[in-house]
Amino acid sequence: MAHQDPKQEIINRLTRLLVASPGKIPVGTPQENTPETKNKTLRFLKERSLPGRIVYIVVFENEQGSEIYFTCYVEQDTQGNWLFRGAAGDGIMGHNPGPVVERAWANLGGGGMPNHFYAGGFVADHGQDVTRVCLIAKCGTVVEDNVENGMVLFLTDQPVDLPIQAELYNRADTLIYSHRVLG
To answer: What is the pTM of this model?
Structure first.
């Protein structure tokens, strides 16, 4: 069921997906839908929006206390309801940084190509002061974001196709490293 609040749509979808495993509150029980259950474990860390589209980086705390991140994408229908359209991620923060490299690196998940592109994830800084990440699609579309708390989040209304190159820049706006992401 869609909601008029985009965050509530994500909370309900992730709660159904993550709470319904053995040892957790079964789907459909009254306890599942209490604000205390949902708000205790889900946090919205970063947001980007365009008219009718929003992408968030969301963190869910599992039973073991590990934080699992998702990049979640919602779209608004003609009635004004927000619909969950996709998610990428599920890595445990600090335990799944992507490839083991000794240089700056953007570890991203996303989807919606070619016309509803979204992506987000974490930047491994390795002391190189990465402040900005620029994504360049094969078709020439460029999307940028500033690194905040080690995270970047992207959303565009321009067509995006694979492969996508990530360029990482430092505070002096010097290109530190470039590598392929998302295909």
So the answer is: 0.82
